[in-house]
Design goal:
- The complex is a heterodimer of chains A (about 350) and B (about 350).
- Chain A is about 35% helix and about 10% strand.
- Chain A is an alpha/beta fold.
- Chain A has one domain: Rossmann fold (3-Layer(aba) Sandwich), CATH 3.40.50.
- A 5-stranded parallel sheet of chain A has the order 3-4-5-9-8, sandwiched between helices.
- With about 350 residues, chain B is an alpha/beta fold.
- Chain B folds into 2 domains: about 190 residues, Rossmann fold; about 130 residues, Rossmann fold, CATH 3.40.50.920.
- In chain B, helix 1 packs parallel to helix 5 and helix 7 crosses helix 11.
- The radius of gyration of chain B is 20 Å and the shape is globular.
- Classes of the chains: A alpha/beta (about 350), B alpha/beta (about 350).
- The interface between A and B is large, with 55 and 55 residues.
C-alpha cells in the first residue's frame, strides 16, 4: 500500500513507511518471544527471558545503531531483553531460536547460554551476561577506545531500572564523566518498574533515574518507550549528542513487562500494562498509515516465518560432548600447555 | 641487577613500545606516583583511574573488546575481592560467546604477605584465582621471570592475571634482564623517579630486548633426587635456601621447582620430578582449606599413589580470618623458613 500519512506524537512524526517497517519488526519480535515462551513450556527449550513490551523502543534503537565491527561503529552492551533491537539490526529470528533450543548452530553461544544472551562480533554486540548491570562497567572501556580513535562511534549500554541500584551504574557515570575525559556512552535504562517481583516504588526514592546523572553533568531524557514516534526521536537526539559531543547521555524509557520477569514466574501474559503493539496498531489505523488487512497480513506472515524457522531449528544438531571445553582459550604463541585451546587439565590424558 | 618491580616496569615499557600495550591504568598508576610499589613509573600510557576496582576491571574488558591491549592494576589483591564476578565474566567471554570475542587483557596485583601488611595487605589470591577458568595466572619469584612472563602475558590473547609477590618486589635478582645495564645504581638513576618533585623527570630506558618465558613452564631451581619441593612467589626463595642448608648440613639433595605459572601449571615437570624422587611437598602461603596446592596434591594421590615413597603433603597458610600485624601473628600464620625447612626434612626422612 502507499504511504498516506505520517504518525505524530506532539510535534514529532515518522513517515508511514518507516512506521510500517517499525511495526513489522515489532510484530516479528513479539511473535518470536511468544513462540519461545511456548518452547520453554513444551520442552523444546528450558528457561525463557525476553522483552515483550519493549519492542517499540528496542526496534527504534536497533534501526538507528551505526552497525559494524570496530571502533568506527557503535558498541552494544545489551541486556537480555533486546531481541527486538537485534531483529531491527538484521538478525534472523532463527538465530534467537537456535539459542533457545540450545543448538550447536546457535551463533551467540553454541547452545551454552540462555536465550537473549546475544554475541555478534561483526556488529559489535558484546556478549550479554545474566549478571545484572556489569555491562555498565565495560561501556566506558569501549567508549574510551572510540574517543581516542576518532569518528562518531558510540558505546550504547542497556539495562533495567532495578539494576541501577548496583554500584556498576555509578561506575559508568563516574568513568564516563571524568574531567577532560568525557566519553561517548549512551546509558539506556529500560524502566519497566519491576525487579523480578519487587516494585520499583518500594525500593527507589528518586523520581527519575536520569536525575542521578545531573551531578555528573550527564544530560538525560525520559521517554515513553511504548511510543515508537517518541522513542525514535529521543534515541536520535541522544545518539546525536553522544556522537557530536563525545560525551555521555542518559535515556530512560518507560516500558511494559508483558510476560513477567521470565519463565521462572510462568511468563504469563499480564493484562494491566500497555501493549506497544496493539497501541501502535490502533494509531496506525486512526492515522491512515495502514488498514486492518495489512495488520492481519503482517501477523500472518511473521507468525508463519517463526514457525518455519522453528521447524528448521529442531532439525539442527545438538552440541557434541567434545564441545565442552571448546573456545576456552584463544590460540597463543606463548602458552606451553595450551597453544591452541583448553582441552583438559595440564598433562592429563585428553578426552577423546 | 633489577628488582622485581623494576623488571615489571621495564616489561611494561617494552610492552607499550613494542607489543601494542595501549593503556596501563589503575589507582595511582599514572603520574605523579607511578604505582604504590613504583611498578608503573615513567610509562607513557600509564594513567590514574577512579578508586573503583570494578570500574578498573570492566573498563579493561571494554578496552580489550574494542581492540586495545590494557594492563590494569588492582592496587592490592586484598581489594580485588569485589571484582570476582567480573573476573569470572572476563574469563568466560570467549567460551560463552563460542569464540565471538577474545579478551586480551592483563591484570596485575600485588599478592601475599611479607610487608607487615596486617589484615588487608597480606592476602593471597592464587587459590581464588585458580578457580577462574579461562584465565591464565602467573606468580614470579625473581625479576627475570617477572620480565619474561609479563611479556608473554601481554602477547597472550587471553586474560592473564599477574600476581606479584609483595615481599619480593624490591628484591634484586642475580641475572640481568636482556638489555639491562650491569650496574644497579645506573639502572636506578635511569628508571626510578626521584623522591619529591618529579614533574620534569623523564625516564631513560635501557635498550631492552624481547624475552618470552612461556606460560605453563616451570623452572627447576635446584636439581636433586632425594625429594621434590614445589613452590612459587614469596616462599620459593625460602625453599631454595632450605634446600641449600639441608644439603650442607644433612647431605640431602632436594629438587626445587618454581612453578611460576599457577594456571596452566607445568604438570610434566612436577610429575617427572616426583617419579625421580618419590617424595613431594607443595609450599605456598594461601590459606589451607581449598588451597591450590591441594589440587596438585589430589593429582599426585590419584595419579601416582603407587609411585610415592612418603606421604605427599602441602605446607600452607593457616585457616584463620587474617594475618595479624604483630609479627608473632604473621610468622605463625604463613610458612617461614624454619617451618619450610622442617617440612622438607620430614618429607626426606620419612620411612615407608
Amino acid at each position: 500500500m502507499t504511504a498516506v500519512a505520517d504518525l505524530r506524537t506532539g510535534r514529532f512524526s515518522l513517515p508511514a513507511d518507516r512506521v510500517r517497517e517499525i511495526y513489522t519488526l515489532m510484530v516479528r519480535a513479539r511473535k518470536l518471544e511468544e513462540r519461545m515462551i511456548k518452547m520453554s513450556k513444551s520442552g523444546e527449550g528450558y528457561f525463557w527471558i525476553g522483552g515483550p513490551g519493549e519492542e517499540a523502543f528496542n526496534v527504534c534503537l536497533g534501526l538507528q545503531v551505526k552497525k559494524g565491527q570496530g571502533p568506527d561503529y557503535d558498541y552494544l552492551h545489551l541486556h537480555y531483553r533486546n531481541s527486538a533491537t537485534m531483529l531491527a539490526m538484521g538478525m534472523e529470528p532463527i538465530d534467537a531460536m537456535r539459542q533457545m533450543a540450545m543448538r550447536r548452530t546457535d551463533p551467540h553461544s553454541m547452545g551454552r547460554n540462555f536465550v537473549g544472551h546475544f554475541a555478534r562480533r561483526e556488529w559489535n554486540v558484546l556478549p550479554v551476561s545474566s549478571v545484572i548491570e556489569i555491562q555498565y562497567t565495560m561501556a566506558p572501556g569501549t567508549a574510551l577506545v572510540q574517543k581516542r580513535h576518532g569518528g562518531d562511534g558510540i558505546s550504547i549500554v542497556v539495562g533495567g531500572d532495578a539494576g541501577t541500584a548496583e554500584g556498576d551504574f555509578a561506575s559508568c557515570m563516574i568513568w564516563s564523566s571524568r574531567p577532560g575525559q568525557r566519553l561517548p556512552v549512551l546509558m539506556i535504562v529500560m524502566n519497566n518498574h519491576w525487579g523480578i517481583s519487587t516494585a520499583a516504588e518500594t525500593q527507589h526514592g528518586e523520581e527519575h533515574i536520569i536525575d542521578r546523572g545531573k551531578p555528573f553533568g550527564i544530560p538525560g531524557e525520559v521517554v515513553d518507550g511504548c511510543d515508537p514516534v517518541a522513542s525514535w526521536h529521543a534515541i536520535a537526539r541522544a545518539m546525536e549528542y553522544c556522537r557530536r559531543e563525545r560525551g555521555p547521555f542518559m535515556l530512560e524509557a518507560l516500558v511494559s513487562r508483558l510476560h513477567g520477569h521470565s519463565s521462572s514466574s510462568g511468563a504469563v501474559r499480564v493484562e494491566n500494562e500497555p501493549d506497544c503493539v496493539t497501541i501502535l496498531e490502533q494509531r496506525m489505523l486512526e492515522a491512515g498509515v495502514c488498514d486492518r488487512t495489512y495488520i492481519a497480513h503482517v501477523h500472518e506472515t511473521e507468525e508463519a516465518g517463526i514457525e518455519q524457522a522453528l521447524e528448521q531449528v529442531l532439525r539442527e544438531p545438538q552440541p557434541d560432548p567434545t564441545d565442552v571445553p571448546r573456545f576456552t582459550y584463544a590460540p597463543s604463541p606463548v602458552d606451553a600447555v595450551y597453544p591452541q585451546d583448553y582441552d583438559d587439565l595440564p598433562g592429563r590424558r585428553r578426552s577423546s | 641487577m633489577a628488582t622485581l618491580v623494576q623488571a615489571v616496569r621495564m616489561a611494561l615499557h617494552y610492552g607499550e613500545t613494542h607489543l601494542g600495550v595501549t593503556d596501563i591504568f589503575g589507582e595511582d598508576v599514572g603520574p605523579p606516583l607511578g604505582g604504590v610499589f613504583t611498578a608503573t613509573q615513567g610509562l607513557k600510557t600509564a594513567w590514574n583511574s577512579p578508586l573503583d576496582e570494578r570500574g578498573i576491571v570492566g573498563t579493561a574488558m571494554g578496552i580489550a573488546y574494542a581492540g586495545g591491549r590494557p594492563v590494569a592494576e588492582i592496587q592490592f589483591c586484598d581489594y580485588g575481592f569485589n571484582t570476582i564476578d567480573l573476573l569470572k565474566v572476563a574469563g568466560n567471554q570467549r567460551w560463552a560467546s563460542a569464540g565471538n570475542y577474545e579478551m586480551p587483557l592483563v591484570l596485575m596485583t600485588p599478592s601475599g604477605s611479607g610487608i607487615r601488611g596486617s589484615l588487608y595487605h597480606s592476602h593471597s589470591f592464587e587459590s581464588w584465582a585458580s578457580r577462574l577458568a579461562g584465565w591464565k595466572i602467573f606468580m614470579p619469584s625473581r625479576p627475570l621471570d617477572a620480565y619474561g612472563l609479563m611479556l608473554s602475558a601481554i602477547v597472550d590473547p587471553n586474560p592473564v592475571l599477574a600476581l606479584l609477590p609483595k615481599a619480593l618486589l624490591r628484591v634484586r635478582g642475580d641475572e640481568l634482564l636482556p638489555g639491562e645495564p650491569e650496574d644497579p645504581e645506573q639502572l636506578k638513576a635511569m628508571i626510578d623517579a626521584p623522591v619529591g618533585d618529579r614533574s620534569a623527570w623523564q625516564p631513560q630506558w635501557p635498550p631492552l630486548e624481547e624475552y618470552f618465558i612461556p606460560l605453563g613452564k616451570a623452572r627447576i631451581c635446584r636439581e636433586g633426587a632425594d625429594a621434590t619441593v614445589v613452590s612459587y612467589g614469596r616462599t620459593l626463595p625460602l625453599c631454595e635456601r632450605a634446600a641449600d642448608e639441608l644439603w650442607e648440613e644433612r647431605g640431602l639433595r632436594f629438587e626445587v621447582i618454581d612453578l611460576r605459572t599457577i594456571f596452566p601449571y607445568d604438570w610434566e615437570t612436577i610429575r617427572t620430578s616426583l617419579l625421580k624422587t618419590g617424595r613431594i611437598l607443595f609450599v605456598n602461603e594461601d590459606t589451607e582449606v581449598t588451597n591450590f596446592g591441594e589440587h596438585l596434591l589430589r593429582r599426585v594421590v590419584e595419579e601416582h599413589f603407587y609411585d610415592v615413597l612418603a606421604a605427599p603433603r602441602v605446607l600452607q597458610g593457616k585457616h584463620v580470618p587474617g594475618i595479624g600485624l604483630n609479627q608473632i601473628y604473621e610468622q605463625n600464620t604463613v610458612p617461614q623458613l624454619p617451618q619450610i625447612r622442617q617440612a622438607m626434612l620430614e618429607l626426606a626422612m620419612e620411612e615407608p
